[in-house]
Amino acid sequence: DQAMQWKKETLVPPKGLKRLVAMQSSKPVWCVFAPYATAEITLGQLTSIIRHLQQAPADHQKVLWCPDWSSFAVNSCNGEQKVISACYSMMIEALTAVMPDLMKDVKVLIQSEAILLDPSQYWISVINVGRHFQLQRVRAVDEANETAGQVIAAMMHVGDVLAIAPSTICSSPAAKVAHELACDYIKETEVTEIAVPAVHVSPPVDSALKPPHMMDGPANADDEIYLLDASMDVGRKLKRAFCEPGNVEHCPPITLVDACVISAGKGLAINRKEENGGDKNYVSIDDLVADFKSGALHPGDLKPSVTKAVDAYMQLIRDRVKANDAAKKAEAELKNFLKKAAAKKKK
């Protein structure tokens, strides 16, 4: 009987919702959601965020939302809040290091800090989401939504969208369904204060150093480049990276140099002997792909140049970490977590 009574209760009508996060300007908001926290942030994750932020129209306010409490709910980083916080600190420092001009125009919002601006309003919104949708519909956001924490995080995502009230959400294909659940909630409950956001789908940067058919079996640390990798690690990993002559369908070195160098407006310098075509500077990814596909550019010439360029990109992050106490602390926290995890695996 008590359960039935709760079901009939009305907490706060959806029409009473308000935007929790006040923007300094009246510009439409272009929102990018960072992935759940991980101690092993990949170069692909970093460059995907950059790519999604860069797609914002000039007249939009760019927002990067870091879901730290949702990460805790799904047990990211074993639920260690210090590590989760360190992940997002490291991510933000890395973004600032490699794209300082872009990040000047980005409003970074940490989920926990935004929620604490008005926790009652936020959690009532999330409870209302749970009351509106059946469990199966929330779980359908992700086939892996089996635990209570994952379901709560999916409902919190709707609360996040309501808190930001974005005009557009830039999303990877994998996250599209989660954003659409938020859009459906706004439509179905007839929220009038917050417009239904558009969902702009953009593919992420695939930074895996091997093609899918070679990724079977246990995960290998050399299959990705991580933000904590030293210069030696980058060199070793790219030397082993899959790079088949003429194969442009899956060529990790080309993918990485496009994401880290060419899309940033820089060129890739190829140094080689005259009999092999001589030196060349690529400023267009189309030209580079065309030459590699035709055989005019050989893996033996491409890989060393890409390694040098990607490591220079990573060095920007290393230099910022060295010069920033908060970044140093975040790096130490992540390394310590990974060290403990590795030791635990050996037992």
What structural keywords apply?
347 residues, alpha/beta, Rossmann fold, Tyrosyl-Transfer RNA Synthetase, 2 domains, 5-stranded parallel sheet, disordered N terminus, Tyr-tRNA_synthase, coiled coil, EC 6.1.1.1
Describe, in plain words, how this protein is organized in 3D.
- The chain folds into two domains: 193 residues, HUPs (Rossmann fold, 3-Layer(aba) Sandwich), CATH 3.40.50.620; 135 residues, Tyrosyl-Transfer RNA Synthetase (Orthogonal Bundle), CATH 1.10.240.10.
- 51% of the residues lie in helices and 9% in strands.
- The protein has 15 helices and seven strands.
- The strands form two sheets. A five-stranded parallel sheet has the order 3-2-1-4-5, with helices on both faces.
- Helix 10 links the parallel strand 4 and strand 5.
- The longest helix has 25 residues.
- It starts with a helix and ends with a helix.
- The N terminus is likely disordered.
* SSE pattern, N- to C-terminal: HEHEHHHEHHHHEHEHHEEHHH
Shape: globular
Strand order of the largest sheet: 3-2-1-4-5
Q: In the residues, how many domains can be counted?
A: 2
> What is the helical fraction, as a range of percent?
40-55%
Main pleated-sheet profile: 5 strands, parallel
> Please, how many helices?
15
* Structural class estimated from helices and strands: alpha/beta
Would you state the CATH class of the largest domain? Alpha Beta
Give the overall pLDDT as a whole number.
90
- Tell me the number of strands: 7
Distance between the termini: 51 Å
CATH architecture of the largest domain: 3-Layer(aba) Sandwich
Low-confidence stretches: 1-11
The named CATH superfamily of the largest domain: HUPs
CATH fold call of the largest domain: Rossmann fold
Based on the structure, what is the oligomeric state of the protein chains?
single chain
How big a fraction of the residues is strand? 5-15%
Radius of gyration: 22 Å
Catalytic activity: tRNA(Tyr) + L-tyrosine + ATP = L-tyrosyl-tRNA(Tyr) + AMP + diphosphate + H(+)
GO molecular function: ATP binding; tyrosine-tRNA ligase activity
InterPro entries: aa-tRNA-synth_Ic, Rossmann-like_a/b/a_fold, Tyr-tRNA_synthase
Family: Belongs to the class-I aminoacyl-tRNA synthetase family.
